[in-house]
Amino acid sequence: MSASPASAAPGDTLTMCHSALTPTGWVDTQWWNSGGCGSGFTPNTKQIKDLRGYPVGTQVAACASTWPPAGWTITNTYYSSGCRYSAVPSFDANTWTLKRTS
């Protein structure tokens, strides 16, 4: 659906289908349904963000559908409708604030 993660810079975003694994150093930042990635009720498309290269102290929001990369710490959890990656609606915390710590 978009450019290769190999050519990305810190903060760049890409869109990909749910079946593709989020690359190392990246996090999921949004989920939605798209005809380009199949059909059904489960969100099947995700936006991912490159966290490699950010300076220590940087904070970002990320969906809890992937683990934080090495050097990033979860500082807060909360619900966001943009990070609903399941067909079963829930208001459980599904989003993290991540902080670069090393």
Number of helix segments? 0
State the secondary-structure class. mainly beta
Shape: flat
How many E strands? 6
Runs in which pLDDT lies below 50 for 5 or more consecutive residues are none
Helix content: under 10%
What is the CA–CA distance across the termini?
A: 32 Å
Radius of gyration (Å): 13 Å
| Biggest sheet features | 3 strands, antiparallel
Strand content is 35-45%
Oligomer: single chain
Strand order of the largest sheet: 1-3-2
> Average pLDDT value?
92
Number of domains: 1
Run of helices and strands: EEEEEE
Précis, in short:
The protein is mostly beta strands and 102 residues long. The chain contains no helices and six strands.
Description:
It is a single chain. This protein has 102 residues and is mostly beta strands. The protein is 0% helix and 35% strand. 25% of the residues are buried.
Q: What's the layout of helices and strands?
A:
Elements: E1 13-17, E2 26-32, E3 45-50, E4 59-63, E5 72-78, E6 95-100
Antiparallel strand pairs: 1-3, 2-3, 4-6, 5-6
Salient structural properties:
102 residues, mainly beta, 6 strands, flat
